Amino acid sequence: MYGSIEFGGTKIKCASFDENGKVIDDCWIYTGKTEENLEEIGEFYKKNPVEALGVGAFGPIDLNEESKTYGYIQNTPKKLWVNYDLLGNLKKQVCQKIKIVTDVGLSLIGEANKGAGEKLNSSLYLTIGTGIGGAYIQNGKLLNGFSHPEMGHINIKRMKDDDFKSICTYHEDCLEGLACGPSVNKRLGQNPKDADINEKAFKIAANYIAQAIYTYTLVLRPEIVIIGGGLINKEGFIEMIREEFDKIKGDYIPVKESCEYIVKPKLKNDSALIGGYLLAKSL
Fold this sequence. Notes:
Its cofactor is Mg(2+). By secondary structure, the protein is α/β, with parallel strands linked by helices. The chain has nine helices and twelve strands. Helix 1 packs parallel to helix 2 (86-93). The model has no long low-confidence stretch (mean pLDDT 96).
């Protein structure tokens, strides 16, 4: 059997798959203390032993296999996880054959192979949730330099009169700090699920996300942009992002119609777990 784990900002999803990609068992664990979470993961995989494991983790995380700290979570806002040897502890709890990518990278592997990016040579995935992360895949290979991309922390040009205090502890004007789920929640003063889509906070967030997509489009020229995460499920929000993107890009770059270019994940909430299965099977 093959294992898949998605370490998210609020929850950890674990699953075991058979050879053909059928889910045998799965579980959700709320992201909390490191050792408690790893023990819970270990218990799950004692019941569902696997020969290989594909993992996606929130970052920053060291993905340089030549590094002494390969597989360590680094300077994350989740203070309990800073400098945590995720790979080493997963090897103790689950199995020895493990491959780690970012959480958004894992979702992209799923979508590029079995979802919205299937049969395309290039795809970009952006997740708008507790934080904002991005990943890009070209000809089956995830883009990494000395480390993984940090697409959620690019600078954004603020809209006029937007004096909102960024929720990012590192940057005053980054995409994540101004447009992730918790920042929209704070702008609204309530859960975005319960708010009117016509509230200004959604328009601001849509504009900032569209700015980012335009930047990624100029640099990477992906064939499709897939947006996941909790906030994108708000009815009417992705349409708002497309509208803002069309205004920003104008006629400068030829891309598909925005309704075909900026899309939701075809695999819905299963993108990352399927990506983990595919990653594990490749080992």
